Amino acid sequence: MTVTDSVRSALEQDKIESHLNPVGSFDVADHPVPTGREEIWRFSPLKRLHGLHADADLGGRTSKLSWNEPSGVSVSVVTGDEARALRGVSGLVPNTRFAARVLAEVPATVLVDVPADTEVSEPLVLDVAGLGVEETAGGHLVFRFGAHSKAVVVVNHTGSAAVAAVVEIVVGDGADVTVVSIQDWDDDAVHLAHHQALVGRDASYKHAAISFGGDVVRMDANVTYDGPGGSAELLGLYFADAGQHIEHRLFADHNAPHTRSNVVYKGALQGEGAHTVWIGNVLIRKVAEGIETYEENRNLVLTDGCRADSVPNLEIETGEIEGAGHASTTARFDDEQLFYLQARGVSEAEAQRLVVRGFFNDLIRKVGVPSIEERLTTTVEAELAKNVLKELAP
């Protein structure tokens, strides 16, 4: 029995059906076109998705992919039977139409392999450069990290595109893995993505979702476990401007004992019609004794006309756990912080810049990839200058 088969078998035997995550299917026909009334679609602006949620063509050439070549990493594009064998390798059974369509219809898979016991000395960077929104496309990426390997992968999205993507991540026993996805699209881009990770025994997995650009960005980031002792840290940073819709949905499925998950997402909003959505779902199954989980979402509203939806959920089927909790806040600038800085001669614009930078700074450090920390800080300040600082300028 393969790893994927064992995970599916365990989930099928467990009769608990999560109220937080719909039952999945590989059959596209089992996924009606969303109407917007479904729980998992009620926040998403369907009319702006270029039909990616429905029946848009997934065969367009909307982006160009390139990558560096760190020693010890294999990157290839596979097709045919080899590609089909990778569909669902993470234990993913699609619960959205777009994910089911990607797995059924996209002919090629980008495969990243890190062998067992390999420590990769520099980040692998995959650059996805959008070529325009005139066509729509689908993509499938698979990251396989062997037992006791250590690696960092950064997926960098720029340019303009309309794309639906499925990213599957398999973290071997005892591995230490970081996957960073940066959505720095142009203003007209549309990006639907489903990231699914399977975390092995005593493995450590960190996933960071960083969303700045795009017209609509919606990312599902899910994690399940392939044995006890696995740990998952799910981080997110987002900044929505006028008219932007940025949506992040998390699902940590504790299907093995003594596993851990920690979720921290922070976002800022500015400009008329800026809308962010964060849905944090955690399921603790009956078999998951001794687990520990915590999820946190904090939003900073910088101007009028913004909307931040934040919905943390815990579904607990056993009382034999170490701990479980969640926190969610949405607030404006802290007047006391601004007063403190201005009382010491700091201008209002500079005070607001310092507060926003401090709000994000600890999260940027948690991402733990020095090569992109400066870029993230610079991008946050550039986003802030678009609206808040411009309004305050003399």
TrEMBL record:
Entry's family note: Belongs to the iron-sulfur cluster assembly SufBD family.
Domain called SUF system FeS cluster assembly SufBD core: residue spans: 139-359
InterPro entries, per the entry: Fe-S_cluster_assembly_SufBD, SUF_FeS_clus_asmbl_SufBD_core, SUF_FeS_clus_asmbl_SufBD_sf, SUF_FeS_clus_asmbl_SufD
Domain of life the protein comes from: Bacteria
The protein's name: Fe-S cluster assembly protein SufD
